[in-house]
Amino acid sequence: MTNSSAASVVEQALSIAARSGDDLLAIVGPTATGKTALAVALAERLGGEVVSADSVQIYRAFDVGSGKPDAVELARAPHHLVGTLDPLDRADAALWAADAARAIAEIRGRGRVPIVCGGTFLWVKALLFGLAAAPPGNDAIRDRHRAIAERDGRPSLHAALGAVDPPTAARLHPNDFVRVSRALEVHELTGKPMSEWQREHAFGTIRHPARVLALACPPAVLTERITLRARRWLAAGWADEVRGLIDAGYGEARAMASVGYAQVRASLANRIAPADLEAAIVRATRVFARRQRTWLQRADVTWLGP
Question: Does the global pTM surpass 0.90?
C-alpha cells in the first residue's frame, strides 16, 4: 500500500468513526492487509488504545512470525492482549471475548477510545454478539481426541465429525484439530451438534454496538505483500525462533499449528526443503487469506480501500 493510499484509508476510517458515536471500532480483514498500521494511525488521531484480536499474537514467545506490533508501534499506541498467555495456555473465543470486554471497559474508563484489531474474526464476533451456550471444555475428552489424532491422523477426527455434524465438518479444515475437537466434544457432551447450537444462537443479540471495518487489497498486491513479509520474517530468524520454541517444550502449542509456523516447523523436521520454505509459507498464507475474505464477505462490514 502506497503512502497516499494508506492515508486515504485512514481518512475513510476517521470519517466513519466521526459518524459512529459511541460504537466500538473494530478493524478486521485478511492477513497482511495492514490492519495494525491502520489501528495505530487511528489510535494516534483519536486518542485510542488497541485491543488485539489475534489467536497467535496473544501468546508469549511467538513473536517473529505472528506480526506482533513492533517497538515503534507500541510507542505510538498502547496494545492489549498481546503476549499475555503462556504458549501452552488455552485460548478460545469465549475467554478472549471476556478479556477483551474488560480491556475495553478499562480503556473507556480512562477516557480513551478502544480499537479492536485482528484477523481472528470468530473472536471479534464473540465479543460483539456472544457465543452459543454450549458446555465448557472437557480436558479428558480433548486429551482423548489428541491421542486419536496422533495415532490415526487429524483427518480421522474430521471424518468422525462428518458423521455426527456434517455442516460443521464442511466448514472446518481436516487439520484444524482445535475446532474439530471442540465440535466433537460438544456433541459428545450434549448429543446435539455444534451447528445446531450455533443455529439457535445465530449471533442475534448485540453485546457491543460496533462499526466493523475491513481492509480490502487486490489479490496480486496481497500476494506481493505476503511474499515480502514471509521473506522478511525468515531473514529475521523465524526458523531459529521455532527451533527454540520446540526445544523449550512448546512443539505442541496451539500456535505452532498456525499458518507459517506449521510450515517452518515442517522444514525443521525435513518435511519441507529449506529452498522451498518461503514458497510453502506464501501458498498456505494465500489460502488462509482467501478463507478470511470469504468469511468476511458474508459479514456486516464496511470495506476500506482505494
Answer: no
